[in-house]
């Protein structure tokens, strides 16, 4: 008797209507060895193989008989196998950028005719992303802002790009998972994304006070109506929060916001994300500047 774990290296494949299956797969299943104590060697003769497989699977398959045909066909149902996804490369989506640089070893396969768009597929949704070339670099560009917003990506994440034969369709795997985004700091320094402001041309031309959303009120109250805001490589900002329209009670940042816009040379499409560190009662900002592709 042949042990279940021992499977002869058969590679012959024959056609069983309505699908094509591998006899190696048929004879290596636990079901086969569980029901039959005698292993019958495979033969390269198609007729013999057909007869053997049909006889052995009589009690586990259905035989369909056509009224106008006297022949019986064993229907063996197996899952349809698609091309496997293969890891192509890994890249980082930084939380202060809306571009992802494509590794040179990968994008050279597209040369000299680079695709204008590629597709990212995640959780059943497909996102169309435009490719941009500059000198020897190729980036995933337009479409990433909407991609980030739709998936609520607020921290830097590593993305594994998987594909099969279609080099312009990528299945994505996030590390860490999007449910476990982290800034990579100890818990006492961890932060929470509160809201994001998108800079518009009207905001730059005739700036108004920065209205604080309702989701920020609890944190603003906790820090005494004063926002200490940390920035990368620059001194902290000190913003006082005031009530402009007393009847409604909405809270704003006025003069410090005007000064902040004037000092940072923003452009239409830039974004400012606000984060809150609960333990320290301190705010942080991350600025994402829209890249100008006019060249």
From TrEMBL:
Residues 122-197 form the DUF7271 domain. Keywords: DNA-binding, Nucleus, Transcription, Transcription regulation. The keyword DNA-binding applies. It is found in: Nucleus. One of its GO terms (molecular function) is DNA binding. Pfam families: DUF7271. SUPFAM superfamilies: DNA-binding pseudobarrel domain. Coiled coil: none annotated. One of its GO terms (cellular component) is nucleus. The keyword Nucleotide-binding does not apply. Its main location: nucleus. This is DUF7271 domain-containing protein.
């Amino acid at each position: 008797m042949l042990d279940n774990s021992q499977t002869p290296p058969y590679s012959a494949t024959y056609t069983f209507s309505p699908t094509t299956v591998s006899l190696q797969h048929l004879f290596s299943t636990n079901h086969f060895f569980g029901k039959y104590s005698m292993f019958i060697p495979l033969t390269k003769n198609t007729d013999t193989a057909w007869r053997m497989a049909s006889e052995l699977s009589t009690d586990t398959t259905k035989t369909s008989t056509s009224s106008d045909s006297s022949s019986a066909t064993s229907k063996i149902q197996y899952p349809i196998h698609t091309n496997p996804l293969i890891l192509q490369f890994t890249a980082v989506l930084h939380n202060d950028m809306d571009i992802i640089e494509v590794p040179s070893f990968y994008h050279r396969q597209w040369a000299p005719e680079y695709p204008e768009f590629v597709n990212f597929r995640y959780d059943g949704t497909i996102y169309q992303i435009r490719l941009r070339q500059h000198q020897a670099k190729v980036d995933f560009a337009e479409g990433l802002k909407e991609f980030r917003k739709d998936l609520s990506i607020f921290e830097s994440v590593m993305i594994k790009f998987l594909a099969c034969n279609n080099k312009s369709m990528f299945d994505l795997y996030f590390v860490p998972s999007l449910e476990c985004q982290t800034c990579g700091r100890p818990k006492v320094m961890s932060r929470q994304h509160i809201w994001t402001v998108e800079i518009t041309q009207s905001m730059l031309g005739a700036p108004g006070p920065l209205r604080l959303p309702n989701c920020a009120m609890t944190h603003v109250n906790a820090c005494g109506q004063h926002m200490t805001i940390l920035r990368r490589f620059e001194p902290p900002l000190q913003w006082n929060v005031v009530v402009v329209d007393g009847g409604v009670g909405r809270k704003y940042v006025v003069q410090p916001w005007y000064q902040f816009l004037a000092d940072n040379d923003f452009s239409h499409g830039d974004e400012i994300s606000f984060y809150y560190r609960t333990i320290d009662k301190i705010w942080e900002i991350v600025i994402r500047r829209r890249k100008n592709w006019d060249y």
